[in-house]
Write a structure and sequence with these properties.
The complex is a heterodimer of chains A (about 230) and B (about 300). Helices cover about 85% and strands about 0% of the residues of chain A. Chain A has helices spanning about 1-15, 20-50, 55-80, 85-90, 95-100, 105-125, 125-135, 140-170, 170-195, 200-230. The radius of gyration of chain A is 20 Å and the shape is elongated. Chain A has one domain (about 1-230). Chain B is of the alpha/beta class. Chain B folds into 3 domains: about 1-70 and about 150-220, 3-Layer(aba) Sandwich (Rossmann fold), CATH 3.40.50.300; about 85-140, no CATH class; about 220-305, Alpha-Beta Plaits, CATH 3.30.70. In chain B, the strands form 3 sheets. Chain B has a 6-stranded mixed β-sheet with strand order 6-7-8-3-9-10, sandwiched between helices. The two termini of chain B are about 30 Å apart. Classes of the chains: A mainly alpha (about 230), B alpha/beta (about 300).
Chain lengths: ~230, ~300
């Protein structure tokens, strides 16, 4: 774990500058706030006209929020993670780290933590705004928490896929394209199954466990692929 | 003691190393000679832990390196890290933190001291990518000194035709001879001949020969046997050669003399010099020499290029 923290610090230093991260966070939240405000304004205007709030519109508002969160995950993950291990490999950094007996597991884990940390900062910063739409969509706090946990796990899952791709495909453009295609396919699957999954606690739990296991398998395979490529 | 047993390495379907077995004793200076893509660097990378998907065993003091995470053998890489947006100071501190041998303050003063002694203190806050290859290799050497491992591996360190750099690095290497095991992967014995105790020659992933320097020279029969074809003055030539203390095993026919030059002359440079002295003495004494050449040896084609 000591080596992981040392590598993580170096990766953070050489990757996304703190200032850039804050700018990205502000821009995405401004856009999200505008969407939420515009849609809320539309629902209220319709309500004033018809004398009642259309619940279907509110439900749609809630679905739109989930899609927006999923989009954030699927837009950022490939961007941050699909060219990590292959870049380290290409730049001889993996070779240098291995020669000082840093294990591949530690390298993969550090890369994963670096990506997931950035992704989580960007994702969780949207939760206050997005939660408003869930709350007014008639969801209980427990269901909202369950949904947000699923989205966090989904982010981990997509990140693992991107890291695995980065270990397999050495060409940066190809790996970015493949990562985007696969991420959006899984986003569609996740959106389709989400409403069924959050109905019960046991279903949510099983869904989370399944994603966690697949993520672990992918990260473990990423390690094996690095051994093969090095 | 490093014990490499039947090391096999295959990458992308190509056999890089085939059954390489070597025994390297403590504090020896070994040079693994080979052409480009012969597998010499791969042996070093396997010992240092870069390559892990090999077959066979690499034992250091009886322990298999696959199951030992201690940095016993550190490598001075041939290729640099690229695109690293870090300064020399950050680079050395990063590896210093991984080695974990000094606390923060000690590490800082050690780095400063070494940067000064290598005359590259002015590059402390320069991006590592901005350094030329010679300064970079010196930074790498400092990195290894931070770790101070018992085994140091040098991957093609004297490839470059920069005498100032080569002599500088050699000066530091000479200070650690006898205290550490040093293994060089090189394309020639330039700069190394006087310090190596053992030589291995590798070709297409297989070790052609490995042993102490003299036995390798003897086995290769290189730079030892000389044949002189003479047009006129055979008896005078024989007399001149017999007077030379380094000339042995003289065999002659009608117009040809072959002899060996003493194996006590370990340096090929000295041997080359002696050869030209002998040739000059023959010519200066009015002997008409038709040709003066080394006899073909077992590994001449490979070895002569590498050594000579």
């Amino acid at each position: 774990m000591r080596n992981v923290m040392i590598i993580l610090k170096r990766l953070n230093d050489s990757f996304l500058k703190q200032r850039v991260l804050i700018i990205m966070m502000v821009i995405q939240n401004v856009i999200l706030s505008l969407i939420v405000l515009m849609y809320a304004n539309m629902i209220i205007s319709n309500g004033r006209l018809n004398g009642e709030i259309d619940y279907i519109q509110v439900r749609f508002f809630y679905n739109l929020s989930i899609v927006l969160l999923s989009l954030i995950i699927c837009a950022y993950s490939p961007f941050f993670l699909s060219n990590t291990l292959n870049k380290l490999y290409e730049n001889n950094i993996i070779e240098h780290l291995l020669s000082v007996r840093v294990s591949i597991r530690e390298i993969v884990f550090a890369v994963f933590l670096r990506g997931i940390r950035t992704l989580m900062i960007l994702l969780i910063s949207t939760f206050p705004i997005i939660s408003i739409s869930f709350y007014f969509g008639g969801f209980s706090i427990m269901k909202i928490i369950r949904l947000l946990i699923i989205l966090i796990m989904f982010a981990i899952f997509i990140s693992s896929i991107c890291i695995y791709i980065s270990s397999m495909i050495l060409d940066k453009n190809v790996s970015l394209t493949v990562a985007y295609v696969i991420s959006f396919v899984f986003m569609a699957i996740n959106l389709i199954s989400l409403n069924r999954v959050i109905v019960s606690f046991s279903m949510t739990f099983l869904y989370l466990i399944a994603m966690a296991i697949i993520s672990l398998i992918l990260l473990s395979n990423a390690r094996n692929t690095v051994i093969f490529n090095t | 003691m490093i014990n490499i047993k039947e090391l096999k390495l295959n990458r992308y379907g190509i056999d890089i190393l085939n059954n390489v077995s070597l025994e390297i004793s403590d504090n020896s200076v070994v040079c693994i000679l080979g052409n480009e893509n012969s597998g010499k660097s791969s042996i070093l990378k396997a010992i240092s832990g870069v390559y892990q998907n090999y077959y066979g065993e690499i034992l250091i003091d009886g322990e298999d390196i696959k199951y030992n995470n201690k940095i016993i053998a550190d490598i001075l890489h041939e290729d640099r890290e690229i695109d690293s947006e870090i300064t020399v100071d950050e680079y050395l501190k990063f590896y210093g933190a991984i080695y974990n041998k000094y606390n923060k303050k000690e590490l800082e003063s050690f780095i400063d001291e070494k940067l000064k002694s290598f005359s590259i203190m002015s590059y402390k806050y320069t991006n590592i990518n901005m350094l030329d290859i010679y300064d970079y290799k010196m930074v790498e050497f400092i990195r290894i000194l931070i770790n101070d491992p018992p085994i140091i591996l040098f991957d093609d360190v004297f490839t470059y035709d920069n005498d100032e750099f080569n002599e500088k690095i050699m000066g530091y290497i000479k200070n650690i001879i006898g205290k550490k095991t040093l293994i060089f992967a090189a394309r020639s014995l330039n700069y190394l001949e006087e310090i190596v105790t053992h030589i291995g020659v590798i070709e297409n992933g297989s070790v052609v020969i490995f042993g102490d320097k003299e036995s390798v020279y003897d086995a290769a029969e290189i730079s030892k046997k000389v044949q002189v074809d003479i047009i006129d003055g055979l008896s005078d030539a024989l007399q001149i050669l017999k007077q030379n203390e380094y000339v042995n095993d003289i065999i002659y026919s009608d117009n040809s003399i072959s002899f060996t030059i003493s194996t006590k002359l370990s340096s090929t440079t000295k041997r080359d010099k002696l050869e030209s002295e002998i040739l000059n003495s023959l010519i200066n004494n009015g002997i008409k020499v038709y040709s003066f050449k080394r006899q073909r040896a077992r590994f001449e084609q490979l070895f002569e290029r590498l050594v000579g």
